[in-house]
Amino acid sequence: MTDRTIPADGIGMHLYTMRDVLKEDYPGTLQKLAEIGYQTVGVSGRFGHSAADIRRFADDAGLKIVLEHVGYPRLTDDWEGALDDVRTLGGEWVVVPSLPEGLRTLDGFREAAAAFSKAGETARQAGLKLLFHNHGHDFEVVDGQVKFDILVNEVEPDLLGFELDLYWVVDGGQDPADYFQRHPGRFPALHVKDMAADGSWEDVGAGKLDFPAMFAHAESGGVQQWLVEHDAPTDPWVSARTSYQTLAQMRY
């Protein structure tokens, strides 16, 4: 461990964490996140607002939107429109959050790799970068092949990066630091989500994941954004504050 710290403008909130309060008051929620200290957010769900509305809310709160989650079907259903919306938001990454269940086979991952190559080229031409967000099942080993690695190996690095969800990597039996070292520069964004002793989700710093050991190799991985996430917080505001304080004070 060194005295490295996460840059202040690298600590963000993935807004899926805050979905219950966003439904009630989207602009007010962003204002409160900024007051806690967050400087960036990842968008997941619009709750009836347009991309322009959300951009205005973020600008008013002094937050930068870095990415938006866009469902896999959008790759062939108005992908240009999805990219336009991310540009309106001011983001730099368009993120596919998961593969459809029917594609969670080796052949399905290869099909997805081909689709990502095509969509990633269109994104690059639009000045954006396509990322994929993992879950635990993506690391299933079939016939000696880690399914996730098909995407890493079969899509050119300039066409596909990854928003690596640290909880789900560990849940899938892998080590994020290993990926950072083996595939430099592929992981510009992280979901920083902790794991409780029983394997459930936990606020960052209150669980068992060794984040400093992971982050020691974050520079190799190309990490620019550490986005807090909790899939089912008892109180999203407690989770937001606890997680922010943990990351802001962390040395690695």
Question: How would you characterize the overall build of this protein?
Answer:
There is one protein chain. The chain is an alpha/beta fold and 252 residues long. The protein has a single domain (8-249), classed as TIM Barrel. It has helices at residues 19-24, 26-36, 51-61, 79-89, 106-125, 147-154, 166-171, 176-182, 211-215, 218-221, 236-249, and strands spanning 11-14, 40-43, 64-69, 93-96, 129-133, 141-142, 145-146, 161-165, 189-192, 194-195, 201-202, 225-228. The strands form three sheets. The protein has an eight-stranded parallel β-barrel, surrounded by four helices. It has a two-stranded antiparallel ribbon with strand order 6-7. Strands 10-11 form a two-stranded antiparallel sheet. Helix 2 (26-36) runs parallel beside helix 3 (51-61) and helix 3 (51-61) runs parallel beside helix 4. The N and C termini lie close together (5 Å).
